[in-house]
Amino acid sequence: MKKPIDRIEEYINYKGLSLNAFDISIGKSGGYTGKQIKNKASIGVDVLHTIVSIYEELNADWVVTGKGNMIREEFAKPKTIDELIEEKIEAKLRGVTIEDLKTLMMVKEFSEAQKLEAKKAMEKEQAKQK
Length: 130
Description:
By secondary structure, the chain is mostly helical. It has helices at residues 4-15, 19-25, 32-38, 45-54, 60-65, 81-93, 98-129. It is elongated, with a radius of gyration of 19 Å. The termini are far apart. The model has no long low-confidence stretch (mean pLDDT 85).
């Protein structure tokens, strides 16, 4: 059975944050979250309160019980690349590294390359059908 710390780890991965950046963003020393994950330790209500206050999209009910969605409904909408970049910039201000931003840019470039490849494949298929 998953514990709240497991769901927090899932959220960190979903956000694409490093554990260190997450620790800094919640005002904990580096290594705090990693140690809690490794030991399958409980987190205190004060830490949980800090996390859901900073990461407003995170559904506290989901963290505590596993019920519902990870992301609160009012935040669950498809995000544009610009919104993702803006989130990464905001996260950088909370301690995310340049490497995380480089990763985001690589993902964006990869996504655009996939779109171009799909468009070419569709055009090729349409040409065959003519």
